[in-house]
Design goal:
By secondary structure, this protein is α/β, with parallel strands linked by helices. Among the domains are: about 240 residues, 3-Layer(aba) Sandwich (Rossmann fold); about 120 residues, GMP Synthetase, Chain A, domain 3 (2-Layer Sandwich), CATH 3.30.300.30. About 35% of the residues lie in helices and about 25% in strands. It contains 20 helices and 30 strands. Strands 5-4-17-16-18-19-20 form a 7-stranded mixed sheet, with helices on both faces. Strand 28 and strand 29 form a beta hairpin. The two termini are about 25 Å apart. The mean pLDDT is about 95. Bound molecules: 5'-O-[(S)-butoxy(hydroxy)phosphoryl]adenosine. 5'-O-[(S)-butoxy(hydroxy)phosphoryl]adenosine (WT7) binds next to helix 11, strand 20, strand 24 and strand 25. It catalyses: acetate + ATP + CoA = acetyl-CoA + AMP + diphosphate. InterPro entries: Ac_CoA_lig, ACAS_N, AMP-bd_C, AMP-bd_C_sf, AMP-binding_CS, AMP-dep_synth/lig_dom, ANL_N_sf. Its cofactor is Mg(2+). It holds the Pfam family AMP-binding_C.
Length: about 650
């Protein structure tokens, strides 16, 4: 058992929520009451919430249609528009002057965009996209740095019913090409470049490279000038974003679409095959983005400044940098740059300068900040903070305690949120002013969410570890995998006969009903809160001409949570510098987040008699742990020694 898990199992501290503040859900009793409402009338309660929180053009006639389970339909008959919900209705309510987005660049530049301005930009972008022939249902790939134009592009898609697919800017051109092709995108929106560590990195050349082969559906590239770096353009195909928007009117009638109209596709890694395009639709996703802003963060749009540090290339950036805060009519902060640039105080400086009140980040960032030292947060006035959130991987109690003590001054609630790309928004999280917290536990399922821990047969397990499942559908659930219905059913619903959604995580429920997430039970790695499939990295390695076979496993990493260890069998002789070359190869195939930390070479890989790679054995070797597997049946015993050798 890893040290992190042992310490979680021994954790018994508990902290009361801060007193004196009435949150949306002000007490555990109120939480229980809301839960009871869901048990009494599941559909009716969801229906009431959807009616109250969203602006509908046509009211829905049915809350939940389970007839085609596990393909669930929410809010049938309803018509609405996401950008209208995020923009027009706030302007109409007299909030046009309120800041929607505060953006800070790495060099310290600041832009403040009001709701009125954002609406105008979104309308111009939507008109420009229409002029390029983009219609409802068309796919638009967004490959951009963390700049307001990225949010404008997302909202503009929703305004005309186009489906966006944001690809994280650090993914390679090959990874980008795969996604463009799988989605069948008609348009790519990108920027010349972005800022990182005081320098400009180029994005547009990756788009050119991606489009140099295949990608026949792409007609145009909209190019935002931001980095100022020289980039080649293709006449007729490439169009300057600002020029295109400038000639457009600042009004664009929002297209009302059905509740289940696709809003976006977001690619994420699975245990097998290529990344899957997770499909989210309109009404349910938007409802839950807004409700979880209220419930988990106690977001008050009139007063709070909300900062989620995630890039919009991930689901966290979608739901909590863009849709959640804007659907509530509040202010969201976007920062483009490295959080520790020019020094480890940058995050806290931003919190002070903008008076951030709700801060949401990942355990990997917290661990890096701990390492940098307590003197950095001590330099800044953090008194505006009132809620601290974390997401992406299990948070070790030590990191939790530091967040609580050093940043929260033992006064602020720590909101550890468990969820996934597939769930659209938080599933298990404390209510900041109601739920007592325990370091390392995401605490209790949110109202309306039926989470449980079960054994292989679907029987509830209390006290011991088991598989985390969701036993009822929820509005922001994925609606499928783009272009692959079978994979959707197989991955999430096959295991428990279409009754339970299988999350792929292991978890334990303690005597208070608190959930302790133990991490993935499949071949998915979580590296710095980024999800990667071992098979994806293996395929990347095997595509190198000198590699015959490869196996990739995770190993505990103090900062990143999990590190990547690759075991490689070569076709020919080992050559000097091969490990570095293979690392670079993986980076070019997938992106820098997939770079192996450790590569080891051997004549063969340890396999069972039936020919399966002994992954648990490899994980033990990678972590430098004692080997527990029976290796007496291995043909070549020396392989183990070879694999234990670092290059
Ligand atoms: C996987 C989902 C949800 C946005 C970021 C990641 C792990 C996520 C927690 C948490 C323990 C967590 C799980 C999950 N995870 N949040 N609070 N505690 N583990 O989204 O890339 O879809 O990854 O991240 O293993 O399955 P994702």
């Amino acid at each position: 058992m890893s040290e992190a898990i042992t310490s979680v199992l021994e954790e018994n501290r508990s902290f009361e929520p801060p007193a004196g503040h009435q949150g949306y859900i002000p007490s555990l009793a109120a939480y229980e009451a809301l839960k009871a409402r869901f048990s009494d009338d599941f559909d009716g309660t969801w229906g009431d919430l959807a009616g109250q929180h969203l602006l509908w053009r046509e009211p829905f006639t049915r809350v939940l249609n389970r007839e085609k389970a596990p393909f669930f339909h929410w809010f049938e008959g309803g018509m609405l528009n996401v950008s209208e919900n995020c923009l027009d209705r706030h302007v109409a309510a007299g909030l046009g002057k309120r800041t929607a987005i505060v953006w800070e660049g790495e060099a310290g530049q600041v832009r403040r965009i009001s709701y009125t301005e954002l609406l105008a930009d979104v309308c111009r972008a939507a008109n420009a996209m229409r002029e390029l022939g983009i219609k409802a249902g068309d796919r638009v790939v967004i490959y951009m740095p963390m700049i307001p134009e990225a949010a404008v592009a997302m909202l503009a898609c929703s305004r005309i019913g186009a489906i966006h697919s944001v690809v994280f800017g650090a993914f390679s051109s090959l990874a980008l090409r795969d996604r463009i092709e799988d989605a069948g995108a008609r348009l790519v929106i990108t920027a010349d470049g972005g800022s990182r560590r005081g320098a400009v990195y180029a994005l547009k050349p990756n788009v050119d490279e991606a489009l140099s082969e295949g990608c026949h559906t792409v007609r145009h590239v909209l190019l935002v000038r931001h980095g100022g770096n020289e980039v080649p353009t293709v006449p007729g195909r490439d169009i300057d974003w600002h020029q295109a928007l400038n000639v457009q009117p600042a009004e664009c009638e929002p297209l009302a679409v059905e509740s289940e109209h696709p809003l976006f596709i977001l690619y994420t890694s699975g245990s097998t095959g290529k990344p899957k395009g997770i499909l989210h639709t309109t009404a349910g996703y938007l409802l839950w983005s807004r409700l979880t802003m209220c419930w988990s963060f106690d977001f008050n749009p009139a007063e709070d400044l909300f900062w989620c540090t995630a890039d919009i290339g991930w689901i966290t950036g979608h739901t909590y940098s863009v849709y959640g805060p804007l659907c509530c009519g509040g202010t969201t902060l976007m920062y483009e740059g490295v959080p520790t640039w020019p020094d480890a105080g940058r995050i806290w400086k931003i919190c002070e300068d903008h008076a951030v009140s709700i801060f949401y980040t990942a355990p990997t960032a917290i661990r890096a900040l701990i390492k940098a030292g307590d003197e950095w947060p001590a330099k800044y006035d953090l008194s505006s903070l009132r809620v601290l959130g974390t997401v992406g991987e299990p948070i070790n109690p030590e990191a939790w305690m530091w967040y609580y003590r050093v940043i929260g001054k033992e006064k602020l609630p720590i909101v550890d949120t468990w969820w996934q790309t597939e769930t659209g928004g938080h599933m298990i999280a404390p209510l900041p002013f109601a739920t007592p917290t325990k370091p390392g536990s995401a605490t209790l399922p949110l109202p309306g969410i039926d989470a449980a821990v079960v054994d292989e047969f679907g029987h509830t397990v209390i006290g011991d570890g088991g598989l985390l499942v969701l036993r009822q559908p929820w509005p922001s659930m994925l609606r499928g995998i783009w272009g692959d219905e079978k994979r959707y059913v197989d991955t999430y619903w096959r295991k428990f006969g279409s009754r339970y959604y299988f999350a792929g995580d292991g978890a334990r429920i303690d005597e208070d009903g608190y959930f302790w997430i133990m991490g993935r039970v499949d071949d998915v790695l979580n590296v710095s809160g980024h999800r990667l499939g071992t098979m994806e990295i293996e395929s990347a390695l095997v595509s190198h001409h000198q590699v015959a076979e490869a196996a990739v496993v995770g190993r505990p990493d103090e900062l990143k949570g999990e590190g990547i260890c690759a075991f490689v069998v070569l076709k020919g002789e080992f050559t000097e510098g091969l490990a570095a070359a293979l690392r670079a190869h993986v980076v070019s195939q997938i992106g820098a987040i997939a770079r192996p930390d450790d590569i080891r070479f051997a004549n063969s890989l340890p396999k069972t008699r039936s020919g399966k790679i002994m992954r648990r054995l490899l994980r033990d070797i990678a972590a430098g742990r004692e080997i527990t597997d029976d290796i007496s049946t291995l043909e070549d015993q020396t392989v183990i020694e070879q694999l234990q050798q670092r290059v």
